[in-house]
Design brief:
The chain is an alpha/beta fold. GO terms for molecular function: agmatinase activity; metal ion binding.
């Protein structure tokens, strides 16, 4: 791990040590949540990863710029959580390990293989990944890398089920990662919950597949009627106590709060509801998590990326608390 394992950095000119996370927020190299940078998985509990890829989008591109802008906006994050009073950086060893490298970015199958190999290495090192996309197609190869010991539970927060079949001659697209994950035995559909689903479609294909496979689909109208607390309770009932992966698509949030995404759908979660929803999953045994579909070109204000960074911080707190409880 570069510099100090506690996140300190040594000034190249003076040799003095300092903590970049405590510097004014306009200073230092932008990293996820102001975490230290690392070029190795050694001595890490949690790896923050960027996947700058949007070759799986069906319409509006731009999410390849998501990781960089989330890094920029996450300089607004502080370390101490105002509700739980948890400082994830005091609880776990965390670093930004950079972006997934692609050997052939125009070859969708090879991109999937590159991502899967990258996350397999993270899993073998005993490190938990927290990722920023990128479009939602990246979650399928992430699961390929992490679910080597059998199917896992899934909490999927999104406006869309992402269980479509082939599109324009390819199955590797952002509308189908969870169909692929189900077909290849990476997720247990009966331990899968999809929260916030809404929006018009030309066909019921995705909704039908989710329901037929046994996934619990919670349309936004049900979430609104139940409230966040009851939605969390239902989701926890579905996934049970086994290993679970959490995937958060920023388009689950209403475009009034998050317009910078490829497929915005009105009538979604508020930013506060989204934070409360994620916090409700404290204590679940997460094997990893991601925030996807932040598309900075569609939101020059940077607010969508800021919201993505905030969700990423909430997820980091969940994972860090989990790591701390094991070590304790």
């Amino acid at each position: 791990m570069a510099n100090g394992t506690d996140g300190t950095r040594r000034n190249a000119a003076t040799g003095e040590s300092y903590l970049p996370r405590q510097e004014p927020r306009y200073r230092e190299i932008a990293s996820f949540l102001r975490a230290p940078l690392a070029d190795t998985l050694d001595e890490l509990d949690i790896a923050l990863v960027g996947i700058p890829f949007d070759g799986g989008v069906s319409n509006r591109p731009g999410t390849r710029h998501g990781p960089r802008e989330i890094r920029n906006q996450s300089s607004m994050m502080r370390s101490l959580h105002h509700v739980t009073r948890l400082d994830p950086f005091a609880t776990a060893r965390i670093a930004d390990i950079g972006d997934v490298q692609f050997s052939s970015i125009y070859d969708l199958e090879q991109v999937s293989n590159d991502i899967a190999a990258y996350y397999s290495a993270i899993r073998r090192a005993g490190v938990i990944p927290l990722s920023a996309g990128g479009d939602h197609s990246i979650t399928y190869p992430i699961l390929r890398g992490l679910a080597a010991d059998g199917p896992v539970g899934l909490i999927h927060i999104d406006a869309h089920t992402d269980t479509w079949d082939e599109f324009q001659g390819s199955k590797f697209h952002h509308g189908g990662p969870f169909r692929l994950a189900c077909e290849h035995g990476l997720i247990d559909p009966k331990r899968t919950v999809q929260i916030g689903i809404r929006g018009t479609q030309n066909t019921t294909q995705g909704w039908d597949y989710s329901a037929a496979s046994g996934m619990r689909v919670m349309f936004m109208e049900e979430v609104d009627a139940l409230g966040i607390e009851a939605t969390v309770a239902e989701a926890r009932r579905v996934v049970g106590s086994g290993p679970v992966y959490l995937s958060f698509d920023i388009d689950s949030i209403d475009p009034a709060f998050a317009p910078g995404t490829g497929t915005p759908e009105v009538g979604g979660l508020t930013s506060l509801q989204a934070l409360q929803l994620v916090r409700g999953f404290r204590g679940l045994p997460l094997i990893g998590a991601d925030v996807v579909e932040v598309s900075p070109p569609f939101d020059p204000s940077g607010n969508t990326a800021l919201l993505g960074a905030t969700i990423m911080y909430e997820l980091l707190c969940l994972i860090a608390e989990q790591v701390g409880s094991k070590e304790g």
